[in-house]
Write the structure tokens for this entry.
Amino acid sequence: MKALRHFILVGAPASGKGTQGRFLSETFGLNPLSTGSLLRREVEKCSELGHQVNYYMSNAMLVPDQLVNDVVRGWLADMGDRPWLLDGYPRTVAQAENLDHFLNSRGDSVDVVVWMDVSRELIEQRICRRRECSTCGHIVQDANARVCSECGGEMVTRKDDNLEAFARRWADFEAMTLPVARYYEARGKVVKMTINSERDAADVSRELAQKLEDFRRSH
Ligand code: AMP
């Protein structure tokens, strides 16, 4: 039985990836990479990469594969042998193939893909309430939150958190990212969490931990 060391989180925006990603990172000792957070920081820093991705991000469009692939490859190379979790990448089958190719060339592979399968109705409710810390990325479901309970940073509403932008992101998700979940499902790598009504995050984490343990035992 192999330990799980290389994780991917797949799910629509506001499907709870951030929260469950933190849980997984703590439980399995993983180094997390959220491509969305990384790219937002680059935009804020006005770096060269930030300039290249700003247009796509402010229009709630996916950044071109090549740009994200390069960022993730660089990050994974820096990781060396350390265990990791990718949140928000791969978002297209082309990105998944690129990642697999890169990992295979190093004698590595993805161990498990956690698929947060949350209904559209539930996500729309969450989007309308969601606030995110501008410093540490902590997310709460409270439209009135001002100060981050984790680090004291300023809580803000993300530019892409409105229903119009969400409709575009959901369409991208269905067209491009659901096939990623199916790509890994066909390879026997998926642990799927189906959620159709609001549940306590800790309760979801407990069920996820159990499913991962079952997955690990059967592989
Ligand atoms: P997120 O915080 O994961 O919802 O990502 C926010 C934005 O970052 C997305 O709407 C995209 O513009 C960009 N982004 C993040 N990850 C990727 C990816 N893997 N491929 C393309 N664009 C991405």
